[in-house]
Specification:
The chain is α+β, with helices and mostly antiparallel strands. It contains eleven helices and 22 strands.
Length: 462
């Protein structure tokens, strides 16, 4: 499970139901431009049929515009092994998008006068280290300095085991700090577990009850909830692919990311939720403005309160993404045209970033080419010659390259490994993260991602 906003160590950002195929259009209404919707349908059909044909991922998406759902589509299969189709209301693990729901609950309590942004957490956790320095706003903005409990080798030892609130609090209180509260920014799931506990305390209610009170009932949602297990008949499972698709055998227990990534829902209901949020139907306009106030003086400079800003050409929108147990998700909104999009994949292969750009390109009628999935076979002896440990003076991130089962893999220090697909004998890609690696002169490697280039040298020791 990875609840970070980063995919492995490489940044995952947006740079610029159903049967297994097809776009479902909502019935015509006076607010819909039917010709425009048909144009979007045609663009997305071509793109996702291409993804399907090359088995480059499986998922579902929704696009809303001006309060109307204009596109609902799935591609591939809910289970790529058995070829089981998605159902109309198949549930996805939405991962860290759950944090936005937690933030809404917190801000509703602030609107009700039960909390304030500058309240310190010592009020709720008297023995928590630095509790007099950490505020509610620090937790919401990832500025508490508390280490992320989902990182580190120990996490794998307990992520599948149900946790009590007391156990969670004790673990996080012992985990330590990356920096002094309020002095920096670092994404942390720990803060959102604490926010969930605080919300339960001030309301004297369960987290599911708070979710129902402030979000599910006001929006008449029918499929958004916190499950007892991530393995239930209406919840699709996560898959990964190295050669063949494999199911995620040991799902995370929902009590682990409770408040940070425990919600299941559909692309349609997540889009409806985010549209309502961005149009001040869940929070007061002045509260929404507080969410959209960017964290001043810290990187990333696009970060607001829980949500973050995303660019598409000259447009700027707001979004949040998630990743857990093989799922990758995103929801975003652009004021231009009142466009909200939601995409969820439980079996990721091709880079989600390009999929999201393709969706927005269709909406705003911008050109976007179909991806090239052409691959080549590279002799094993050449692949073996690339194996080794690589270090860079450009970035403090050692990378190990190794050969396994005739497939070349890369592994950044402290991160999971990932397979590399050959584009030619010296160029390899990991499309899911938009990574390209080229092997130049003997012992030299270049890493490309998000327009950045890092030179590496092959060594035998640090």
């Amino acid at each position: 499970m990875n609840l970070n906003k980063c995919l492995l160590v490489f940044l995952y950002v947006l740079s610029t139901g159903c049967t297994s195929t097809g776009v479902t259009l909502v019935p015509p209404s006076p607010t819909n431009d039917h010709l425009e919707t048909a144009r979007i349908q045609k663009r997305l059909d071509a793109y996702f049929d291409h993804i399907e044909k090359h088995d480059q991922g499986h998922g579902a998406l929704v696009i809303r515009k001006a309060g109307q759902e204009i596109v609902r589509r799935s591609y591939g299969h809910a289970d790529p092994i058995s070829k089981t189709a998605y159902q109309e209301n198949s549930l996805f693990l939405i991962g860290s998008i759950s944090k936005v729901y937690n933030a809404v609950i917190t801000l509703k309590h602030i609107e009700q006068g039960l909390l304030q942004l500058d309240d310190t957490i010592v009020t709720f956790f008297p023995d928590f280290p630095k509790g007099k320095q950490i505020t509610i706003e620090h937790l919401l903005r990832h500025q508490s300095g508390i280490k992320n409990f989902t990182q580190g080798e120990q996490y794998e030892n307990f992520r599948t085991i149900p946790q009590t609130d007391r156990t969670h609090l004790e673990r996080i209180s012992r985990i330590g700090f990356d920096f002094e509260p309020g002095s920096d920014f670092k994404y942390s799931n720990s803060g959102y577990v604490l926010l969930r506990l605080i919300n339960q305390k001030v309301a004297n209610a369960s987290y599911q009850d708070l979710l129902t009170q402030f979000i599910v009932e006001p929006l008449s949602l029918k499929h958004t909830r916190i499950p007892d297990s991530f393995v239930e008949p209406d919840i699709v499972r996560g898959f990964s692919k190295v050669g063949e698709w494999k199911i995620t055998e040991k799902p995370t227990h929902p009590t682990i990311p409770m408040g940070a990534g425990s919600i299941v829902s559909t692309p349609a209901e997540v889009a409806l939720f985010f549209e309502a949020l961005m149009n001040s139907r869940l929070l007061k306009p002045e509260t929404l403005a507080q969410m959209q106030l960017k964290t001043d003086g810290f990187k990333p400079d696009m970060q607001g309160l829980t949500i973050y800003q995303i660019p598409f050409g000259e447009r700027l929108g707001w979004a949040h993404n998630g990743g857990i147990d093989g799922f990758m998700t995103i929801v975003g909104h652009f004021d231009d045209g009142d466009v909200t999009f939601s995409h969820m994949s439980n079996a990721v292969q091709y880079m989600p970033n390009d999929i999201h750009i393709a969706m927005l390109s269709a909406v705003y009628d911008k050109p976007h080419a179909l991806p090239d999935f052409t691959t080549v076979d590279v002799p094993t002896d050449i692949l073996q010659s690339y194996s080794g440990d690589y270090y860079s003076s450009d970035i403090p991130l050692p990378i190990r390259i190794f050969l396994k089962d005739d497939t070349l893999f890369a592994q950044a220090q402290g991160q999971p490994n990932f397979p590399l697909t050959a584009m030619d004998q010296a160029t390899f890609e990991f499309k899911m993260a938009g990574v390209k690696i080229t092997f130049d002169e003997p012992g030299e490697m270049t890493l490309h991602q998000n327009g950045r280039v890092y030179k590496y040298q092959k060594t035998t020791s640090k």
